[in-house]
Amino acid sequence: DTAVSQTPKYLVTQMGNDKSIKCEQNLGHDTMYWYKQDSKKFLKIMFSYNNKELIINETVPNRFSPKSPDKAHLNLHINSLELGDSAVYFCASSQPGTGGVEQFFGPGTRLTVL
Amino acid sequence: SQQGEEDPQALSIQEGENATMNCSYKTSINNLQWYRQNSGRGLVHLILIRSNEREKHSGRLRVTLDTSKKSSSLLITASRAADTASYFCATDAGIQGAQKLVFGQGTRLTINP
User: Which residue, of A1, A99, B17, B49, has the greatest Cβ tally within 10 A?
Assistant: First the structure.
């Protein structure tokens, strides 16, 4: 009965490869996010989609391309992987509301670029 | 630039004691949230406090917000071993249609049995 799920949990790959991470939420939320957590545990937002529309696009290299086929899914494709892309990537979702709402996070995908 | 800064970076206490973590931020906020992250897991929402609120309680958690000082604190009372985790504050800058949460660096809390 997982609310926000991500696949794969671990991803080990070589520099220069292209990889994708998938995210699905079964909460019926309209908004989904991608975050990157580095080795120092610093968590930073990358992208946000609201009902399949890109809302937030932080200063992220264009090697990163999010895709939302429907509002329950937000995938992250990364081209030409670099060593610095090694991190844990978290997907999250929320339902917009006034005054702020909580976000629900997936378990994370640990990406290691060799 | 990073919005939230947390203090201390690490805290180790005995089970049963209270734990207090602080968060400072730089710009005006819509709300501030606290999250917990157990090792190797995703973040779990603990509590949200809006900019017009000063204090909020949830079980053993107490959060305060001082918008004049741009700071918040999280108090965990009667700590348990299961409270061992990293705790993050996150500020909401407020963008229509989506929340843009900016996270602090976190406080790593260890509860010793």
Answer: B49
Grade residue B55 by pLDDT with cuts at 50, 70 and 90: very high
Residue B96: Cβ-neighbour burial (10 angstroms; 0-12, 13-18, 19+):
exposed
pLDDT for position A89: 98
Strand (E) or helix (H) holding B89? strand B85-92
Alpha-carbon distance of B33 to B21, in angstroms, equals 13
- Spatial neighbors of B2 by CB under 8 A, at least 6 apart, are A42, B102, B103, B104, B105
Q: In Å, how far is B87's CA from the nearest CA of chain A?
A: 11
Residue B48 touches chain A, beta carbons under 8 Å: yes
Q: Give the Cα separation of B89 and A62 in Å (integer).
A: 29
- What is the number of CB-based contacts under 8 A between chain A and chain B? 73
Q: Which of residues 18-37 of A touch B (CB under 8 A)?
A: 31, 33
CA dist., res. B12 & res. A111, Å (int) = 30
Q: What are phi and psi of A17, to 5 degrees?
A: -75, 165
Please give, rounded to a whole number of angstroms, the shortest distance from the CA of B110 to a CA of chain A: 16
Cβ atoms of A87 and A37 within 8 Å: the answer is yes
Nearest one of B12, B35, B18 to B111, comparing CA atoms? B12
d(CA B41, CA B100): 21
